[in-house]
Amino acid sequence: MLVQLGEAPRGRRPEWLRAPAPVGTNYRELKSLITGLGLHTVCESAACPNVGDCWNRRTATFMILGNVCTRRCGFCAVQKGAPLAVDMDEPRRVAEAVAMMGLQYAVVTSVNRDDRKDGGALLFAMTIEAIRQRLPECKVEVLVPDFQGSHDAMQIVMTARPDCLNHNTETVPRLYRQVRLGARYERSLDMLAYAKLLAPDIPTKSGLMLGLGETGEEVLAVMRDLRKSNVDILTLGQYLRPTPKHLPVIRYITPDEFAAYRRAGYEMGYAHVEAGPLVRSSYHADEGAESATLRA
Predict the structure, then answer these.
(1) Residue 166's beta-bridge partner residues?
(2) H/E element, 236
């Protein structure tokens, strides 16, 4: 399917990118809970535009292994530098927060930890197990880094049986050196395929940010590559520059273009596609995983 690219605005942020402000009772209660337990969320650390909407719906994406990343990706607002010591009590506190929030679906991600042989895989497994022990009915999705291509690390995570395994390709191969410093496109495809090989019944997921200078055909090519790697769920959203120090937005993608990508994704055989200006990795995560599970 050909996705027609229009002349989307390049300057001021368009109306369709306005998100609810982070205010409200639920937002304040959740912020207090997370702060009190000494936890981090990607919602705040990565300056997600949906933090007000999601936190008022009492959903959050927990970020383990600290809040300092060992990589310096050009798009990400998470702090970079020397990694923090691993907090082995963190899984228990995440599980406590999940229980206190009464979640039915929890998403857990992390910073990159290239300083560790397993890339932090063990703490992912421990967090999945801690949540299940505390709240057995809660489903757990993990958004993992590439573990520097370690199959052993991926096996640790998949042995813990997450309800969905997410790893984002983020952008098209041509832009990797600017956008995902230290990552490799082929490595990400391999890790997604290997996760599916280890547990064919567990849905896999990946996502891209658009507006960094990619072409429509490049996006479609990545979508096809991900399907060849047996990825079930796809998310496509607009890249938004977190600070002037980060990569600039080259182009704002219109809602019609996102709709065209969504249709193309379903034509390629994805079980679930979320595509829109404010879509992020964890956007409607429970719905995507349910669609993929029902289709399996």
Answers:
(1) 143, 205
(2) strand 233-238
Q: Exposed (0-12), middle (13-18) or buried (19+): which is 15, by Cβ within 10 Å? A: exposed
pLDDT the model gives residue 111: 83
CATH of domain 32-295: 3.20.20.70
Q: Which residues contact 15 (CB under 8 A, 6 or more apart)?
A: none
Structural domain boundaries in the chain: 32-295
Pairing outcome for strands 139-143 and 105-110: parallel
* Residues contacting 42, CB < 8 A, separation 6+: 48, 61, 62, 63, 78, 109, 143, 282
- Token representation of residue 51: 């933090």
Helix (H, G, I), strand (E, B) or coil at 140: strand
Count of positions (residues) in the chain = 296
Round to whole Å and give the CA distance between 277 and 16. 7
CA distance 29 to 176: 38
- Return the exposure string of 206-245: e unless at least 16 CB atoms fall within 10 Å of the residue's CB, then b: bbbbbbbbbebebbbebbebbeebebbbbbbbbbbbbeee
Closest CA to 31 of 21, 19, 41: 41
| Pick from 259, 254, 264: nearest CA to 7 | 254
Residue 45's pLDDT is: 44
- Phi, psi torsion values for 283, nearest 5 degrees: -65, 120
User: Could you list the mean pLDDT of each consecutive 10-residue stretch along the chain, which spans 296 residues?
Assistant: 48 70 62 72 52 57 81 65 86 92 88 89 98 95 96 98 96 93 93 98 97 97 98 95 85 96 98 93 76 71
